[in-house]
Amino acid sequence: TGAFTFDPGFTSTASCESKITYIDGDEGVLLYRGYPIEQLAEHGDFLETCYLLYYGELPTPSQRKEFDKNITYHTMVHEQMTRFFQGFRRDAHPMAVMVAVVGAMSAFYHDSTDINDARQREIASHRMIAKLPTIAAMAYKYHIGQPFVYPQNSLSYSANFLRMCFAVPCEEYVVNPILARAMDRIFILHADHEQNASTSTVRLAGSSGANPFACIAAGIACLWGPAHGGANEAALEMLKEIGDPAKVPEFIAKVKDKTSHIRLMGFGHRVYKNYDPRAKIMQKTAHEVLTELGIKDDPLLEVARVLEQAALSDPYFIERKLYPNVDFYSGIILRALGFPTSMFTVLFALARTVGWISQWKEMIEDPNQKIGRPRQLYTGAPRRDYVPVTQRG
Ligand code: CMC
């Protein structure tokens, strides 16, 4: 078999060196470029986090101004791209649209696909950070049959995104700053998470020299699955299905019965064997948003609370170190903001784009970078000779 180790699921294999994100799963610590996630979520904003992840330091005031200018310069998509959307069935899942449209960016922005040119790499990165909200909002508008809303650069990144999703031409739309702040915080919490499945996908795709738009499209495809970015959608569907706090014990019993193959969505993590620090901030944000919207006694929040308590005191979850992860409470907030579940993973993709592109940049700039090429343990048939079809019985 050769001299290599067999590590299904890469549970103990480091695929790269990185200076971007640090996680201590036992202690429940998450740092972006050394800064605790709690501090960034409380005091920073998403664009600042983008700068930090991408360039490695928090921006000075003049760097911040320049960065804002570069990002807002790219917020619109090429007008021809708006027609690309018309090719989809009108009820297409917005994630299907995201994979395709982001992939198609390499066909629209040829002047930033040369990965050997540092300036082109930077422009492609700015374009993706700037255009993903526009594309995500367009995917949503197309899905619900409303006209596209163009970006408004005088607004903050998240306020502009909410406006592109929820404004309609026949009414004035005023962005609620508390809700925009909550959206921004959700983006900060999802911005990077070291070598998760989608980030590893982006790095693997990029290791062959593929252009950055194609690499990010690959990341979006990987993120779609329910064990990864699709978990927020699945978590909310689960809370809806339970529906009533009184039904929590019955549901927990089903999860514990392995033959049911039901998992508690929004619970457990490959790296965190303690409370996911993002889940704590998410829980607090959920309360803030519901209070702002005057939603008292949200039944789903109550189901979530009872479910969390029941799981955290149950030996099954204690023994396996299963705690709420980032997705347990995010669905409650996104639903309150007005997003349908089909948009949840899209929002994750939007936020994670900066993490993917920062990881891609780090890899491309590494002089020791080589194509990712895992090996396998072959367990198939031994060598055998071909038999013509007429002689096969
Ligand atoms: N509910 C019930 N049991 C679980 C769960 C869960 N959510 N997660 C893990 N387990 C059990 C699993 O059945 C196994 O039990 P046993 O040892 O008896 O076979 C044990 O815990 C270890 O599970 P694993 O599948 O080996 O753990 P993993 O590190 O491969 O999986 C995970 C990590 C996140 C895929 C998993 O915990 C899961 O499926 N969670 C639900 C989906 C979810 O919330 N995903 C979002 C993750 S955070 C955001 C992101 O990364 O996208």
Descriptive overview:
The chain is mainly alpha-helical and 393 residues long. The chain has two domains: 16-226 and 342-364, Citrate Synthase, domain 1 (Orthogonal Bundle); 231-337, Cytochrome P450-Terp, domain 2 (Cytochrome p450-Terp, domain 2, Orthogonal Bundle). Helices cover 54% and strands 3% of the residues. It contains 17 helices and three strands. The chain has helices at 37-43, 46-55, 61-73, 79-84, 94-108, 118-144, 157-166, 177-190, 197-207, 212-223, 231-242, 248-256, 277-292, 299-312, 315-319, 327-337, 344-364; strands at 21-24, 29-32, 35-36. The protein has a three-stranded antiparallel beta sheet with strand order 1-2-3. A hairpin with a 4-residue loop joins strand 1 and strand 2. Helix 8 crosses helix 17. It is globular, with a radius of gyration of 22 Å. The two termini are 33 Å apart. Bound molecules: carboxymethyl coenzyme *A (CMC). Carboxymethyl coenzyme *A (CMC) is lined by residues 9, 196, 227-229, 231, 255, 263-270, 320, 322, 325-327. Carboxymethyl coenzyme *A (CMC) binds next to loops. One of its GO terms (molecular function) is citrate synthase activity. One of its GO terms (biological process) is tricarboxylic acid cycle. Keywords: Acyltransferase, Transferase, Tricarboxylic acid cycle. Pathway: Carbohydrate metabolism; tricarboxylic acid cycle; isocitrate from oxaloacetate: step 1/2. Belongs to the citrate synthase family.
